[in-house]
Amino acid sequence: MVIEDEVTSNRNISNTNTNTNADRSKTPNDNIDSRFIQEQIAKVFNIWSDISKLPAVGPSFAYSQNSRSDLKELIEFGKSFLELQIHLSQYCMQINNTYVQALAKASEKAPKQYNSREDLEKYRKVVIDVFEDAFTGLYDSKEFASLYGLLQSNQFDLLMHLQKLTENNLKALNLPTRSDIDDMSKDIHDLKKTVHDLIRKIEVLKINESGNLPY
Amino acid sequence: MNLETYLTSTSGKPYEKDSSPHQVIDTDILKEVGDITRKLEKTRNTLHSAGDIIVGNTPSEVVHEGRMYRLLRYRPMVSKTAKTPILVVYALINRSYILDLQDDKSWIRNLLSQGFDIYLIDWKTPTQLDKYVSLDDYVNNYIDNCVDFVRRKTSVDKITLHGYCMGATMSVIYSTLHENKVRNLATIAPVIDPDKDSTVLANFSRYLEADKLFNSLGNLPPEQLYALYSSLKPFKQGVNKYFNLVENIDNEAFVQNFLRVEKWLYDTPPIAGETFRQWITDIYQKNLLVANEMKIGNHIIDLSKIRIPVLNIVAEEDHLVSPQCSASLNDAVSSLDKRLMRFHTGHVGLIASSYSQNNVLPKVGQWIKARSQ
What we know:
Shape of chain A: flat
Number of domains of chain A: 2
Number of strands of chain B: 10
Low-confidence stretches of chain B: none
Largest sheet of chain B: 8 strands, mixed
Helix content of chain A: over 70%
Structural class of chain A: mainly alpha
Helix content of chain B: 40-55%
Mean pLDDT of chain A: 80
Mean pLDDT of chain B: 91
Number of strands of chain A: 0
Number of domains of chain B: 1
Oligomer: heterodimer
Radius of gyration of chain A: 38 Å
């Protein structure tokens, strides 16, 4: 729409000029032609402008899809990163709380006096036991396991966003992507399995024919 | 404890800041401090100069090989006393040399000395190209190939299948599908019924998004396993073992054993993505195996199809696979000849310790031998 407004205003200026200066030297046909051409040009620009804004076909569409997909991945990456930060801080908090609680418990159990090296050794064992109980208790809990699962899930998400961004760039450079390699790996795996199964079937047929045992 | 408290308690006199140290610190303490420093120094030097740590000493040869496995045959040590050969199926976690860590703690060597013919499947390291390798491939392709090879080589129609941990679970699955090739099934700490598994490992596995892991990472990288290891007995084993090392640094046998186990702990190959995905979702999260609903390839795994003699060996203090999780196998199979052996040790202690040499292996050998003629 911007282009149409500009063209219209130019046309008005142009019309004003023609009225004052050159109007007398031009025929009515000239005015009609130039107006027509300007209108057509405005139309064409506007159409292209709309196409570039909301592409549905052609190379513009493809180009804009790439950049839009990159942008989307970056936004998703940001979201996952934020979630990771939240879960990481919860994770650190749980670890820290457990550590502080264990430390308090270990201090409570500290002997009043150390008379020998054995006393120190005994206390070392107490400290190890207290910390072991506290942390194993934490790791055994559903809450921690679930949080750890979420934390890992966020890391996997981040990695997948990065992989998609990289894939787009590799495609732009006309290089094979990880998805391409995965597809090939899957094909090779399936082919190997088919070959293995066929060999097995042939062996069974041979055994049936000869009546020999398989070894 | 601070130095002030320590000095007060050991000297029996109140510590005064302005008093001369000579009045407070007795020679015993100085000796101890000196000894600790010496041990720390020696520990540092030992760890820096450890070099190659020798494991898997028992002579063997590779008799068959595929892209994902090597089949080893161990050289007999005494004349054969059992007709049926044993095929050991190792787990997909870490390396198989834990079964032959050192001569006096070797599971393999002990069985050889009892007169068994021993073969072992040593899994190779999967690459990203192997991310689609599934449990179906492990069971119906690799293990089946090895079973057939051993049957051909030894001219027997059935073998004894002997699996450890994940390898035990795969051996169980294999036996449901190929019972005609298996005479005896001997499992060590198999994962069968994870709903009864109270370990940290099972707890974490229940909340792991295995599909996402597969899509993002492909194979399970060793770093993920290391993170998991650090949460298993983090202080009793994770921290205390290093204190124990310093304490026992003058004991050469202790140090060598420590180094071997440490080497094994951090010698971790990745696990093929699809295999791990199925392991977590179908076994740990949906518990399909014990429910007889797990699908391997085109087959539904029905544990009740197992009718062969079954020996199930579990460790009471197993912190990786709860004994109850493994013991469910004995209820699930239809075998009339089945035995559950429980031992007071841990997951690794069950297979690589003096305890296992003296208490576990004689009984296991006896059971297998009685069914191998």
